[in-house]
Amino acid sequence: QICNQHNAEVPNLEQVFHRMAQTEPSLDHDVSWFLLPSYWAKMVVALISFLCFANSYDGDFVFDDSEAIINNKDLRAETPFGDLWHHDFWGSKLSSNTSHKSYRPLTVLTFRINYLFAGGFYPVGFHVINIILHCTISVLMVDVFSILLGGLQFSNKGRRLNLAPKTSLIAALLFAVHPVHTECVAGIVGRADLLCALFFLLSFLGYCKAFRENKEGHNFSIFWVLVSVILGAIAMLCKEQGITILGLNAVFDVLVINKLNVLELIQKLLHKDKSLENAGLLRKGLLFRITLLMSGGATILYIRWRIMGTGPPAFTEVDNPASFADSLFVRAINYNYYYSLNAWLLLCPWWLCFDWSMGCIPLIKSVSDWRIIALAALWFCLIGLICQALCSEDSHKRRILTLGLGFLIIPFLPASNLFFRVGFVIAERVIYLPSIGYCILFTYGFSLLSKQAKKKKILAVAVLGILVINVMRCALRSSQWRSEEQLFRSALSVCPLNAKVHYNVGKNLADKGNQSAAIKYYREAVRLNPKYVHAMNNLGNILKERNELQEAEELLSLAVQIQPDFAAAWMNLGIVQNSLRRFEEAEQSYWTAIKHRKKYPDCYYNLGRLYADLNRHIDALNAWRNATVLKPEHSLAWNNMIILLDNTGNLAQAEAVGREALELIPNDHSLMFSLANVLGKSQKYKESEALFLKAIKANPNAASYHGNLAVLYHRWGNLDLAKKHYEVSLKLDPMAPGTKENYNLLRRKLEQLQKKGG
Length: 758
What we know:
Helix content is 64%, strand content 0%. It is an all-alpha fold. The chain has a domain at 321-344 and 361-478. The chain is elongated and about 115 Å long. The N and C termini lie far apart (99 Å). Its EC number is 2.4.1.109. It is found in: Endoplasmic reticulum; Membrane. The chain crosses the membrane at residues 39-57, 131-151, 163-182, 188-208, 220-237, 243-266, 286-305, 372-391, 403-424, 430-449, 458-476. InterPro entries: O-mannosyl-transferase_TMTC, TMTC_DUF1736, TPR-like_helical_dom_sf, TPR_rpt.
């Protein structure tokens, strides 16, 4: 039932309210909305936030998940636990020049726990934790919004009072169902934002607890202030934005605890007004608390800076083109345009994309560009809100607007390009915390409209409609995040000029074996961004496999010309040159790749194949040995060593290498097969038979396994078993080379034996 009753859940308010806020108007007074007890409100928020994203629970690892989770060695049990504290979010050493410098060890720790409990890379557990975290955060938002919208007041028993139960429920629901949060919840990498938000809110609520015993405005708990600082530090160890809560706590202290008029305070500071002493700053401990917050923040930042090293992360122009613009004017205009787009995503989260870089948003280079209107609209709204927040005679309005703007702007500052260059144009995940400020402003605007409107229920129905639409949009968007194919294709209509979108669609198609369609998208990616070396490399790879070697060589040569240290492109160029029988050039390309990537086992493997083609057997063996040293599980390199030694008559050495390989990779059936061949030639029939049978058990449909086992039985004299496996081999592959001839020989031999026996 929608009702207008005010504060029905809190009995005897006049006996328990503190003197400091008795006269403030209630935001709930004119709002027509559901009035629920606190625990019911939280249950409703939890349920609805769960419904929004529940369909993402069985999604795949998508987009950045592969790098942050699947390819991140810090998740595996064999990686020392201490390495987490010296590596970035992606598992690279922070001291490395290629490090992203994103230091989030606590987030990586939760990934590691997920991996260990699941016993491997099974995404369900990762997704479930993300959904639970968002539900928990949404529930906490009920308490946070009740403080931000209704003020901080306690009963005589020290229990916090909810003076805005209806508006805090509206704001919490708006936060819980906002579609822009889908990336954080449905994308596993968004765990960083979720954990950061959780400790961010706990830090804020902890700071509020510091004033539980505050009867006259000048008693507070130092313990809870310090707890708040520690929780802020934990938030920052989950993601960098977490540190901003310390600044917001200070703003909250000024506005809510001390009820200062910011504009009046600034004027007095500028005029060195002695009446500042009468403001009670020292008496109420404000300066002391802010000193604690700021010194705590400075200490945390210093430690973070020392761990990270002095060098900032290195980003490329395609990641954030505006930051590379030569003109300060162009940079400023485009940064502000990005801010307006972020604001639009909060207001109208309909066009969502997993990646907004690579030409998705062309640079504004002139004031004649019509998109300047978006900047003007943004600043018109912001200036209007700031003026009201500073100059309004209504202290209640000043407080809520300032808190709303503070929560909107301050958590966004690390992503604003103002202090350092960031590696993206727009990232929906970084709006997770600023959306708190948006929800405050939206709810306050709704309460003002309700105050003026005669038909309040119509407004309530409109807000309810927005919430329902957002729930549906969340469900649709989270279903798109369930697989890379759906995610990447959903971006084609939002960012058709984004080369990375076309690249990712092409890569997804190529991984599924649809090379013809992949070529189309790779070509479009290169057309949109003629310097997109990764698209050139992948396109060159496909053309190489289709034996279109000339165009493949042109693309790969251009890629290494644009990016001379692109090791993968050098290696692929070497493979193409090898196929074109330009062996010297191929060898040079391989060594150039190794020069730029010292630990490159696949390149050593391909170099070994080149040397084997040139009959440089010692060089081939050395190259393959290097590959296995760098990557002990490199099955192809081990196999090639065994086969080369076998073919050159070095059976004892081949056997030793085979046994060494199987110790490292005991379940590799191809290694069992190669070693079984060597043992058979060495007349170790029993051991050879056991390995053949084990290989066949692991891969029963390999015709060559049955064929070579038949040859072993043929040599051994077990003719019936030889006949059986020859027949199985021919059934699996009627054209198997040599098998039919050997089978015919065996049949003739069996016929001769039958005649002699007859």
